[in-house]
Write a structure and sequence with these properties.
Blueprint: H1 2-13, H2 20-41, H3 49-58, H4 60-74, H5 82-107, H6 114-117, H7 119-125, H8 127-154, H9 160-177, H10 184-187, H11 194-201, H12 203-228, E1 247-252, H13 273-279, E2 285-288, H14 296-305, H15 329-335, E3 339-344, H16 353-360, E4 364-367, H17 385-401, E5 407-412, H18 438-464, E6 469-474, E7 493-500, E8 503-505, E9 510-511, H19 515-524, H20 534-548
Parallel strand pairs: 1-5, 1-6, 2-9, 3-4, 3-5
Antiparallel strand pairs: 2-7, 6-7, 7-8
Helix pairs in contact: 2-3, 2-4, 2-5, 3-11, 4-5, 4-9, 4-12, 5-8, 7-8, 11-12, 12-20, 13-18, 17-18
């Protein structure tokens, strides 16, 4: 009997090829249970419980693969304490989850390997995250290293070679699964929002995917940068600004004039009387967006940087920007003594926006969905342009009263986004249009209320800041319900308004990236269309993207 008990203890607590797989299965079951519970209940990336369930369901394939492989790779059969042996992989996984969630809580994004090299800056901007992240990272690395070391050195029994081979294969599988160019296009569900990508794929798999993508960018930039050094230097935004006038730069989501939709007839004009009076018989100018139907960040890139958004590295240039300084229209204004601040009618989760705005040169950015001083109308799904512009006016008024430095005031709206949701309680139908297409009815009534709010904003800006430059544009056309053929202009042609010294200016149809050059010319008193050739700007585009990543 005593001999049987001793043999039983050895079976439970010492390596034995007969029970290693049972222990691995127990460890794996606990890890999967912990992962599922954490994903379902955590509200960091998914603010509502339903989203937690959706996140758990969507991420089953990519994340469960990673969790299983990490667990089996780190399961250490040589640890004598059964509880520690089974729980160790789960501790590593949950520690990684907490680290990823802490980064999102403080920075609104996934952690980056490059955060290690910029630790001093992180310590200054988010000290709690820097300290917590350091401790978690160090603890996770130490525990993982100990487990792997014990696994490789401690297995002295039959089957150890096979298990070590399995661990190497598991690590390779993780890397291959999340490599953007190999398997991930078929597994990873990509989204413009990092938060949504995490909801759809899971935390660790999303982190590894973005890390792999970042490595690809880095490699590509290093290859290109060698050639770029020999390219002729293009001077972006040369000359000195003698007239330090404030600039108000307003970009409205899908701001389409329904009168340009073919076949539409209205009993009353959808253009609000207030804006009609302000235009005094004039019409909107027209400018060419780089995108149609979506991709706001590409329009922003051209308007804020002054270079063509070519999407040569990724489909969205904002996603490539790494947070390091680059040359842009905004940064060039900063060099001339301006301050740059932005008011954004969304949260910071879209299109790598925190890094992008930082690279471009903004010192202050208010994301209204994260701004406590802003109260969103509970009846609106997207923040109404009028509420956005009223909030921005209060910021502008405060700046002007404080006699601060000249500034560029950038505003990005989101109200006109598909599917054109409306708040009928506060803004009932005012415009009747001869169509059965519901989307066009919504667009027409939205346009009425948007142009009314815009007129009030322009008049108040002109009262507060009469010598300023005011530029207003749509980011792109929405995807029209029966296709772009029902639009009477080119699908990339958008409406815009330019005011200088409180007077409406006629703007010839030009591409978005030329708008900053046009405004720069007005500030420096240079010829209006004196910008470099597009071919030289295309080369500069590569250089500046590389600079934003510290290359």
């Amino acid at each position: 009997m005593r001999k049987w008990i001793i043999m039983r203890e050895k079976t439970l607590f010492y390596p034995n090829p007969d029970n290693i797989w049972v222990g691995s299965l127990a460890s794996l079951s606990i890890a999967i249970f912990a992962w599922g519970t954490y994903t379902f209940t955590s509200k960091v990336w998914a603010p509502r419980l339903w989203y937690g369930l959706e996140s758990f369901y969507s991420s089953i394939v990519p994340e469960s693969i990673i969790v299983i492989l990490i667990t089996l790779s780190l399961y250490c059969s040589t640890i004598k304490r059964q509880a520690l042996r089974i729980l160790s992989p789960t501790i590593v996984i949950i520690s990684l989850y907490i680290l990823i969630d802490a980064t999102f809580f403080f920075l609104g994004r996934l952690p980056r390997i490059s955060d290690i090299s910029s630790f001093s800056g992180l310590l200054e901007s988010a000290p709690h995250l820097a300290i917590t992240g350091s401790l978690l990272t160090a603890g996770t690395l130490v525990l993982s290293s100990v487990l792997l070391s014990k696994n490789i050195k401690g297995d002295r029994h039959a089957g150890s070679t096979q298990k070590n081979i399995f661990r190497v294969l598991a690590a390779c599988t993780i890397l291959l699964t999340l490599n953007p160019s190999i398997i991930s296009p078929y597994i990873i569900k990509r989204h413009s929002s990092e938060a949504k990508t995490v909801q759809l794929n899971g935390r660790i798999s999303s982190f590894l995917y973005y890390k792999s993508t970042e490595d690809q960018y880095q490699k590509l930039f290093e290859e290109i940068s060698g050639d770029a050094q020999s390219w002729p230097e293009t001077q972006l935004f040369p000359g000195e600004i003698h007239s330090l006038r404030n600039i108000h730069y307003i970009v409205l989501e899908s701001f389409i004039d329904p009168r340009l939709i073919k076949g539409t007839q209205f009993k009353t004009s959808p253009l609000a009387p207030a804006l009609s009076d302000l235009l005094d018989g004039a019409t909107f100018s027209r400018t060419l967006s780089p995108v149609y139907g979506g991709g706001t960040a590409q329009a922003e890139f051209e308007l804020l940087v002054g270079l063509p958004a070519l999407a040569q590295i990724g489909s969205i240039d904002f996603n490539v920007l790494g947070g390091k300084p680059m040359k842009s229209f905004v940064s060039s204004l900063n060099e001339q003594g301006y301050e740059a601040f932005a008011t954004i009618a969304t949260s910071s989760i879209y299109f790598n926006s925190r890094n992008a705005y930082k690279s471009i040169g903004f010192g202050s950015v208010d994301f209204l969905e994260e701004t406590k001083s802003f109260r969103k109308n509970p009846n609106d799904v997207q923040i109404f342009d009028g509420d956005l512009l009223r909030y921005n006016l209060s910021k502008v008024s405060h700046r002007l009263e404080s006699h601060a430095k000249p500034f560029i005031n950038y505003v990005l709206g989101m109200y006109g986004h598909i599917p054109f949701r409306r708040n009928l309680k506060d803004r009932p139908d005012r415009i009747e249009v001869n169509t059965n297409i519901e989307a066009i009815k919504k667009i027409s009534n939205q346009f009425y209320y948007r142009t009314d709010a815009l007129a009030n904003y322009i008049r108040e800006l002109q009262r507060l800041d009469p010598e300023s430059i005011i530029y207003i544009t749509s980011d792109h056309l929405p995807a029209l319900p029966t296709g772009s053929s029902i639009y009477s202009l080119d699908e990339r042609m958008n409406i815009s308004l330019l005011f200088e010294n409180s007077k409406l200016q006629d703007l010839e149809p030009i591409e978005f990236y030329k708008i900053p050059w046009n405004i720069w010319a007005r500030l420096t008193k240079k010829p209006i269309m004196d910008e470099p050739k597009k071919s030289s700007l295309e080369k500069e585009y590569i250089k500046q993207l590389a600079k934003s990543r510290g290359i």
